[in-house]
Amino acid sequence: MFYAIGDIHGCYDEFMKMLEKIDFKPGFDKLFFVGDYIDRGPQSYEMLSWLEENHTYDCFKFIRGNHEQEFIAYVDLLNSVDSELSKEAIYEQLNGRSEYYDLYGTLGRLIKDGHIDKLSYWADMFRKMPTSCLFHYDRQDYIVTHAGYKMGLHGEEKEEFNLYARGNAYTEGGRRRTIIIAGHTPTIVKDEFTYNKGNVFIHCNEDMKCTFYNIDCGCCFKPQVPNAKLACLRLDDKEIFYI
């Protein structure tokens, strides 16, 4: 069986429950991730540790999300400062200069908890993840990406769309006769194109024969939004699982 799972955002316990719910079997099944493993939720370190142990296994395909992209930028900037100060002190300086540096506080918590030696390793792990993946399964073309996919884009422009597209992912993006699976914009956000009361959002472009699935159902917002959840799509029969 092939599966795709939405933005986990530090909800490690829910992720473990999902693996149990779908009865995931390494060596028999394959799981695609749409990115955003960290930030917002309470267990970013647990997700990083799990990724570190599992990111080389063929049964998993990891896509980079914008939160991983930003983590890379934070760590690279931290490492680029030429100073005799400790990394902890450099971090405090950078964090004090901009409210947007380490916006969700993940880097600071990892440093405080003694994981500073792992930061570059995790950043490089994220750097190796693609921003989209095209594959053929059961007579159907699929693209898994974080935010959206649009034909004809290349280089930085393509990466920007893959990582940050919102409603334009559905109005401008797509690929003929392809199922595109993404996340990025939680389906709990009422003023967004993909709003669906916290359920998976499905949109069809009849001209392109392209179907979009947004499987970010806002799991990390569960404390504030009761209908937020973690979603997983089974590609074989399009059944959707929720935690």
Highlighted features:
2 domains, Purple Acid Phosphatase, chain A, domain 2, five-stranded mixed beta sheet, globular, 8 helices, 32% helix, 243 residues, 10 strands, alpha/beta
Report what the structure shows.
With 243 residues, the protein is an alpha/beta fold. It has 2 domains: 2-65 and 131-242, Purple Acid Phosphatase, chain A, domain 2 (4-Layer Sandwich); 70-125. It is built from 8 helices and 10 strands. It has a 5-stranded mixed β-sheet with strand order 3-2-1-9-10, with no helix packed on it. The chain has a 5-stranded mixed β-sheet with strand order 4-5-6-8-7, with no helix packed on it. Helix 3 crosses helix 6 (119-127). The chain is globular. The mean pLDDT is 97.
